[in-house]
Amino acid sequence: MDNKRVTRRARIALALAGGTALTAVVAQIPANATAGQAAPHRAAAASAAQHAFRSAGTADGTSYDDTYYKDAEGKTGQALKDALHRIISTTQTGKLTYDQVWDALKETDQDPDNSGNVILLYTGRSQSKDANGGNPDDWNREHVWAKSHGDFGTDTGPGTDIHHLRPEDVSVNSIRGNKDFDNGGTKVDEAPGNFTDDDSFEPRDAVKGDVARMILYMAVRYDGGDGFPDLEPNDNVDNGTQPHIGRLSVLKKWSEQDPPDTFEKHRNQVIFDKYQHNRNPFIDHPEWVGKIW
């Protein structure tokens, strides 16, 4: 892609975002055009501007195809996975310490209806940002890819990657523990809609897809390089300390059943803009799940 073309698209996108698109469109209509001629000129210019906006990256971050993802376009299978790994690992220029994760989650998971609160992943409860810690009703930092699955700890790296770290009630986090993900089990009284048994955990319907896409992001981002384990989903449960989490077949269904919503897209954008500067590709392109696995 020609850099000048990308820059020109980005300028149009910014104009659209700032509400100046109409001025730009009108400026492209010849001064001597009749009313009948002006309409198709305006429609064509508006269509081109909308395409440029999508290509440069929309406000909610749903399309960076001509820029961020250009090296992944048209690929499938291992080639797509390898391309996405290169993209999201090389652009992750912001890496957090475990202490810095606290403040990051207060922004990435902020309640859109109450700026003083965060939304907890499994319970769905809106809770004060300041009520974080180790008491049973506090919220803490849930590793969706359990850190014992690969034993990567909380040093900077997979243990602090906020694409899979979420606020959660301390006691519910403890119930989930390091279990794999699967359907079924008994109800979690403190988190209605969640279920658990001896070796698996099923999150509430509203975040099933979120969980799946976080797990699959981790499998693409961490492939055995940089001194970190090669994380891979499989179709098992009770994976123990192996660098695997299951069940992959269930996670794929969850991603289809619960597509990315506004909250998840906004979270991806905040991480990209302010913290790690990389993206979860399965939020931007959920169809890529089926093209890799």
Automatic annotation (TrEMBL):
GO terms, molecular function: hydrolase activity; nuclease activity
Secretion signal span: 1-27
Residue ranges with Basic and acidic residues bias: 177-190
SUPFAM superfamilies membership: His-Me finger endonucleases
Alphabetized Pfam families for the sequence: Endonuclease_1 (PF04231)
UniProt-annotated stretches for the region Disordered: 173-202
Keywords: Hydrolase, Nuclease, Signal
Alphabetized InterPro entries for the sequence: Endonuclease-I, His-Me_finger_sf, TAT_signal
Name the record gives this protein: Ribonuclease
